[in-house]
Design a protein that fits this description.
Oligomer: single chain
Structural class: mainly alpha
Order of helices and strands: HHHH
Largest sheet: none
Strand content: under 5%
Number of strands: 0
Helix content: 55-70%
Number of helices: 4
Distance between the termini: 44 Å
């Protein structure tokens, strides 16, 4: 029995796979973008929903949420 990933889980997996293909880790990406590593992991695992604040910025930066229109 296979588990079907939610759209958010698919996007998080794609982000991780893309990083891996570039030879980068989540730690590398977080450092390059000035985000706390722990918070990036929490956003990617959906522990933080990314509704507002820094978690929202991270969710947009990794492609989990669309860029807000002004």
């Amino acid at each position: 029995m296979t588990t079907k990933l939610t759209p958010r889980e698919q996007k998080a997996k794609k982000f991780k796979d893309d990083l891996h293909a570039q030879g980068l880790t989540i730690n590398d990406w977080a450092a390059e973008n000035d985000y706390p590593v722990a918070e990036v992991y929490k956003v990617l695992s959906a522990e933080r929903k990314g509704l507002y604040g820094r978690a929202h910025e991270i969710a947009v930066a990794v492609g989990l949420k669309p860029t807000p229109s002004k």
